[in-house]
Amino acid sequence: MEGSEHKNPVGIIGSGSFGMAIANLLAENVDVLLYARREEVRLAIEKREGRYSVLSPRIQAVSDLQLVAQKCQLIFPIVPSQAFRSMMKQLSPYLNPTHFLIHGTKGLDLQDLPQGQSLHPEHIKTMSQVIEEESIVCRIGCLSGPNLSKEIMEGQPAATLIASPFTEVIKAGQAVLKSNRFQVYGDHDIIGAELAGALKNIIALAAGILGGKGLGKNLWALLVTRGLSEMIHIGKAVGADVKPFLGVAGIGDLVATASSENSRNYKAGYRLGKGETLDDIMETSTDVIEGVKTLETIRALGAHLGITTPIVEIVYRVFFKKMPVDNAIQFLITYPYAVDVDFLP
Ligand SMILES: NC(=O)C1=CN([C@@H]2O[C@H](COP(=O)(O)OP(=O)(O)OC[C@H]3O[C@@H](n4cnc5c(N)ncnc54)[C@H](O)[C@@H]3O)[C@@H](O)[C@H]2O)C=CC1
Ligand SMILES: O=C(CO)COP(=O)(O)O
């Protein structure tokens, strides 16, 4: 599947903020089929009503997964992690081994555990592993980077990473997404890129708390630096390479998300820093806040693997156990471990 002479339309599953942003980027190069589950959303897209008015004329809305699979060899699934497996179960009957799937989801899949059974690493899957488990497709990639959808929709320049064990997947993604306002890097470590994208949301929650408390850049920089280190330790513990954490999908996305009020994770932390509770935030937010579930999952995983993750632990206590933020900061600042860079071989 070579690029600029791409004949088939490219498919996107999920017509939310990021699905729309990627659809507009793709539409600079190719025709796009944008799947919307609900007929009223498909109609609103077709009529370019409200938020959909900014979508390129090359984007056609459809609400038939079979049609997407028939018409598109390359498909970008971009739905929240909690809906990803059920979406794959619906899509899978229409897929065959010639399909390429590059997902844009930054979260983890957690298997429902029977009462009393404790969490094991094998209960946690990245989205590429879910695609592998639920379909016959093997050419799988992920899209991850500092890609706040609002900025992309405004037409601002940005870059991303496509990670896949298959060079042809990276090339296919680059061919349809690259433009004079969007750079696309490539790498083969998909698990590292997926983990970096999901884990950085935890640090964005914490950065939001600091923002909400009106704290300054010294502490923010410390959080981002130590947060990256913790992300790398978690990644290494489950077999990922350090490299993706040091690239656009790692430090790049971490800096963007942990500093932007356009990040839903940052915003959730900010509200907590202003004194709201997690219940207040979840009850009143219509946004996907991927980091909250990832935080619970990774805290449980860290405990199982016996790795030390003080930031994850303390953000968990602040979000889920109502630990006062000042106590949390005090705990981290006086943490009895002060080795600066300890993740290099
Ligand atoms: N918004 C952003 O700036 C970015 C978001 N992401 C990631 O993209 C993923 C999606 O986020 P957003 O688009 O922002 O969320 P969103 O809430 O704006 O949209 C999610 C979309 O998925 C659809 N959906 C849910 N379940 C579905 C199913 N079973 N089948 C088909 N469609 C389904 C919803 O109807 C909705 O249109 C998240 O994992 C997020 O972390 C990644 C980079 C940037
Ligand atoms: O991952 C993102 C930007 O790269 C989007 O972050 P939020 O999900 O926090 O909005």
Describe what you observe in this structure.
The chain has 345 residues and is an alpha/beta fold. It contains 15 helices and ten strands. The strands form two sheets. An eight-stranded mixed beta sheet has the order 3-2-1-4-5-8-9-10, sandwiched between helices. Strand 1 (10-13), helix 1 and strand 2 (32-35) form a beta-alpha-beta unit. Helix 4 packs parallel to helix 5, helix 8 (190-212) packs antiparallel against helix 9 (217-237) and helix 8 runs parallel beside helix 11. The chain is globular and about 60 Å long. The structure holds 1,4-dihydronicotinamide adenine dinucleotide (NAI) and 1,3-dihydroxyacetonephosphate. 1,4-dihydronicotinamide adenine dinucleotide binds at residues 13-19, 37, 78-81, 83, 86-87, 104-107, 147-149, 288, 290.
Topology as H/E string? EHEHEHEHEEEHEHEHEHHHHHHHH
Low-confidence spans = none
**Average pLDDT value?**
95
So what's the overall shape? globular
Function: Catalyzes the reduction of the glycolytic intermediate dihydroxyacetone phosphate (DHAP) to sn-glycerol 3-phosphate (G3P), the key precursor for phospholipid synthesis.
Active site: 200 (proton acceptor)
Domain Glycerol-3-phosphate dehydrogenase NAD-dependent N-terminal: 10-165
Catalytic activity: sn-glycerol 3-phosphate + NADP(+) = dihydroxyacetone phosphate + NADPH + H(+); sn-glycerol 3-phosphate + NAD(+) = dihydroxyacetone phosphate + NADH + H(+)
